[in-house]
Amino acid sequence: MIGAEALLRTLVGSGVNVCFANPGTSEMHFVAALDAVSEMRGVLVLFEGVATGATDGYARMTGAPAVALLHLGPGLGNGLANLHNARRSRVPVVTVVGDHASYHKRFDAQLESDIESVARNVSGWIRRTARAEDTGPDAADAVAAALGPPAQVATLILPADASWSDGAAPAAAPPRPRYGAVPAAEIESIAATLRNGQRCGLLLGGAALQERGLRAAARIAAECGIELFAETFPTRLARGAGLPAVERLPYLAELAKGQLEGLQHLFLADARAPVSFFAYPGKPSYLVPDQCDVGVLAGGADDVPAALEALADAVDAGSDSGGAPAARPRRPGGELTAETVGQALGALLPEDAIVSDEANTSGIYMTGPTAGAPPHDWLTLTGGSIGQGLPVAVGAAVAQPGRRVIALEADGSALYTIQSLWTMAREQLDVTVVLLSNRRYAILRMELARVGATASGERASAMLDIGDPDIDFVALARGLGVPASRPGTAEEFTTELERSLATPGPSLIEAVVPSIF
Amino acid sequence: MIGAEALLRTLVGSGVNVCFANPGTSEMHFVAALDAVSEMRGVLVLFEGVATGATDGYARMTGAPAVALLHLGPGLGNGLANLHNARRSRVPVVTVVGDHASYHKRFDAQLESDIESVARNVSGWIRRTARAEDTGPDAADAVAAALGPPAQVATLILPADASWSDGAAPAAAPPRPRYGAVPAAEIESIAATLRNGQRCGLLLGGAALQERGLRAAARIAAECGIELFAETFPTRLARGAGLPAVERLPYLAELAKGQLEGLQHLFLADARAPVSFFAYPGKPSYLVPDQCDVGVLAGGADDVPAALEALADAVDAGSDSGGAPAARPRRPGGELTAETVGQALGALLPEDAIVSDEANTSGIYMTGPTAGAPPHDWLTLTGGSIGQGLPVAVGAAVAQPGRRVIALEADGSALYTIQSLWTMAREQLDVTVVLLSNRRYAILRMELARVGATASGERASAMLDIGDPDIDFVALARGLGVPASRPGTAEEFTTELERSLATPGPSLIEAVVPSIF
Residue B105: pLDDT above 80? Predict the structure, then answer.
């Protein structure tokens, strides 16, 4: 058996059966092996950033890694931004980077580069397969490393000769990841603090933001009167009617700081102590109040929901976790704005929907109206590198067919990985793309003032303006095989949204909205 | 003066007056400073790969660096593939990568990453500016490092606080680069070998492929009866009627090896000894025949045209360098194929055109029919990472307004950096994009067989097929503001090409052609 086939068989045996691929010559044996290993689904993408972002979305919804198949160092480079985001999502991802045959590297051919150096930035585990015989064991180790805990990006560099040579065999699947249990004494110590009457907060992130964690946290809050926060950019937040509602810390550091003001203890459940997204002149980077102690309840290597439940029991919390009331806004009328788009979304969001939110400035109108919609998952821009939303929607839709995915996408961000639309069309993924087009890098207009830059002139202003020429997303979507429309009013938008949600396969609705900034 | 303004003023004072930018929050002071420093032209792009590829195209046509302004590590990641290509082009490029304020880095905020590690892969010179006072001197050093010789990518990491703090001043421009003179004894020694009757070849690359170098090489060849070759993927090749025609070594290693067969001496003029682009099972990587000596006439740090002229004089070559006869094919008729597209191009290519060639498999029909067209420059995919052609066209058009740029682009490659079209529209660049759409990764179909992979099945084959759904490049172009058409016959294509060449600003012509493979 050649190395490529042993690699694929090991992956499949380890529960990894989706590969988002943008292959080149050095990956041809991997591609050819797809014919032999029918359990591996190959999903072709037209740009590597789509592959890496899709593995992120896939892992968020399944907890399991998919493979991103990339072509040498430059291919890894093209996928790097979304691997950065995946690293911040703290999800399991396996990237297989094809490389030149081992004996070819010393000739420094055109595509030669130092793959390890590039991978190091985003990948907690990197290995270069030496021989065909190692492909199986290396693949199993890559899956194990990706799963952790903690989950991470694992990068396997696969020389073409290891891929094409004979003598390989599949390896056994790695053991399932074992999450740690937080010691009872630590739980008791935190419980004692929560009951001592001081102002306490519990910051939830990562695995704490799915249903089990949220319910336990809500029980604790109800019992102890502490404040609950969610991290600003959750990997996956369960929300909607019947689920405990937890406010995300605001993106604006000044607002986040205000929310944390007066706390004496802040405990972290799979979250990091909050810091400002960017630095601003004269403003603090660290947002925890000076007098506030920070303690860790559980981290990425722990069984986080279990730790929260143990804490709830330790404080003798009642069993009722409460939940947001079911409530939907009415279908909006009048002008099409980010606000009315949000209302339409709230009016129509289907049960079990998955929202991939990269609407940026327009996004602030999306969360309120959907708070009482039927339960759904909300995925955000975890690593701050725009161009993540559409690929994450691809990955989520591949992971969970039968659930409607809604990509809330800003025009500026969409253009980084617009190639995602083609894969949505090719795979007929049930994705509704709501393209909020304000024809500006609106967030930068806001940031320009916040960093204290004075740019009253036309030349600087033009660098934040993507409306010259206007980008026609209906044309772009159609060009990539996705049906699209551009409603002119809130009513028309709502009708289009309803139609899209009811129609299998992808569609894009461009909402040209006024910019907030 | 704040650091950002001193940086810009130093760049402008050093002859760097174009910035291809995709900025974010950490670059806002750089952007704001564009209002103060009107000599710096800011060209907005929607994706970093466009910025980095454009600096490559700009440098190829001017010999001078432009700036690519990038946003933190992920922005550099998005630009990495085309910086890889620029490194292989051996052109001067300055990248300015904005970073968090220095005091903010330890907080590991969302966008924090190890920029130096990523840059190291592509950049021969990397510096992190420490304080505002250093921005001027660091900018001057970056320009000096980029210019070399040899020319290279220079990366300046600019923390936001160095950018926004006061106390900076512009620095003096660096001295002009000084190329080395090849010692007369070395020239004489090579001349002696060339005259000794053995079979000799001269492989031209880089700076040897512009007019001066070509003419000197042609004089040498005429005098000594040696064989001339051009490297497979030239940075910039001067060609056309009246210019000496030099065959490029074929991409296919087996053909290149055949061409070099029987040589006893191969001399390199700004080129590297030829190696196979990829490794193939059982085939050699190094393409120089066993019995052949390889010698270096001149490298990237030398005055290459002067070295060739000195060698021509040393062998007492005549002054006539010859040149390709003026000849154009007739306007083609009949079916629209890569071949008839090539004939139309040959029939109409304007004098002084700049061709950015990323037509890949279809491109083999483009060079023959244009060999006798009026003199023009031919730019190729130097580093092998597709997605370079359109950005290079952007950069070349910004560099040399008044010259028509023709981007010969394959469908698969075009999708990596399709955002280039928007910048062409915004800046009204005189670019004709000929989009050769065969709806396949055709080169991979060829490579699949060459690497010995057997993929007769549908699943592997589907991974090389980008025709499901068909990509509509006319829609994509219009969506990004570029007029576009899709002629159905060779006559119609020729008419559209003629119209595009005569019309200021960009346009795209999609030629749906049969795949060669």
Answer: yes
Q: Which residues of A touch B472 (CB under 8 A)?
A: 478-481
Mean pLDDT of A418-447: 94
A-chain residues within 8 Å CB-CB of B28? 444, 447-448, 451, 453, 455
Confidence of residue A440 (pLDDT cuts 50, 70, 90): confident
Q: How confident is the model at residue B444 (pLDDT cuts 50, 70, 90)?
A: confident
Nearest to B50 by CA among B422, B430, B479: B422
We find that the CATH architecture of domain B338-512 is: 3-Layer(aba) Sandwich (3.40)
Smallest CA–CA distance, residue A80 to chain B, in Å, is: 5
The answer to whether B3-164 and B338-512 have equal CATH topology is: yes
Q: Which residues from chain A sit within 8 angstroms of residue B476, using beta carbons?
A: 475-476, 479-480
3 state DSSP class of B14? coil
- CATH no. of B3-164: 3.40.50.970
Mean pLDDT of chain A: 96
The CATH architecture one would assign to domain B184-314 is 3-Layer(aba) Sandwich (3.40)
Residue from the list B32, B101, B473 with its beta carbon closest to the beta carbon of A279: B101
**Percentage with pLDDT > 70 across chain B:** 100
Q: Which of B371, B431, B421 is nearest to B399 (CA)?
A: B431
Domain residue ranges in chain B: 3-164, 184-314, 338-512
Distance from CA of A164 to the nearest CA of B (A): 8
- Alpha-helical runs (H) found in A64-199: 72-89, 115-120, 135-147, 160-164, 184-194
Q: How many CA atoms lie within 13 A of A296 on its CB side?
A: 12
**pLDDT tens for each residue of B244-259:** 999 999 999 989 999 9
CA atoms of A392 and A48, how far apart (whole Å): 13
